[in-house]
Design brief:
Elements lengths: L1 H5 L5 H7 L14 H20 L3 E6 L2 E6 L2
Antiparallel strand pairs: 1-2
């Protein structure tokens, strides 16, 4: 929620890149491609949960899902 409140209208990839991950000190730029894939999947799970709880909305824009905090 904090990530999406800091900048409205982000993709799951953008949200995942800002999350804290326990990858032995590596930041997002140091993640291997396959690890980013799994991290985005985990992020999508959290985003879907927040949508179900009514805390987020998702809209398809330019063939990409954009997540926003509900007002």
């Amino acid at each position: 929620m904090k990530i999406l409140k800091s900048r409205e209208g982000q993709t799951a990839y953008e949200v995942a890149a800002q999350m804290q991950w326990s990858m032995r000190g590596k930041d997002w730029s140091g993640f291997p491609a396959h690890q980013r894939w799994f991290a985005v999947g985990e992020t999508l799970s959290h985003l879907d949960y927040l949508i179900e709880k009514g805390k987020l909305t998702v809209a398809r824009e330019n063939k990409v899902n954009i997540y926003r905090v509900t007002q």
